[in-house]
Fold this sequence. Notes:
Elements: H1 2-19, H2 32-40, H3 53-75, H4 84-90, H5 95-145, H6 150-171, H7 179-190
Amino acid sequence: MLFPMIILGFLSVVVGFLVNPLLDLGFVSKHAFSHFLEHNLFFDDPKEFHFVFEVAIISTILAIMGIVTAILVVKGKLNIKNNFVYKILINKYYFDEFYENLIVKKFFYNKIGSFISWIDENIVDKSNAKISDFTIYLSKKMSKIQNGHLQSYGFVFFTALTVLMIVFFISNLNTGDSWLDLIDKLNSEIY
């Protein structure tokens, strides 16, 4: 694995230098890619690049320290298992624990879950119970009509027909038809 990484690292440095060289190479002018981007992209106020040695020195020192530390850890000369920074990094800054305990458990489970549970218990379950109670109530009332007496059946038929005719006539009041036309229309819809 080391050899392919060396090849990739070397080629990335070479291609990066060829695309945007610090010197004139003859076939590629100095800072050619930067000039290409400057003239082809929209910039409000293009700034001149100034090299800052302090930033370069600090980043180089940090990179060398990281490389030396990695070599010492790999060779076993530096034990970092009990180090505070190692524990933070190995636990991914404790982001998973924070997310699981605070966001998932306290927010989703406790807040949103309890709200949805309340809706389920107080609205969904109780509405089903009320619908079944109403159905039982209607069935008890309707069972009194189904008693075998012909006059009860006639009363229900006459009441239902009267209600239907009232609804039909009220719904057709604004059509401008006469009562006889509405009765003819009702007869044509029935037959």
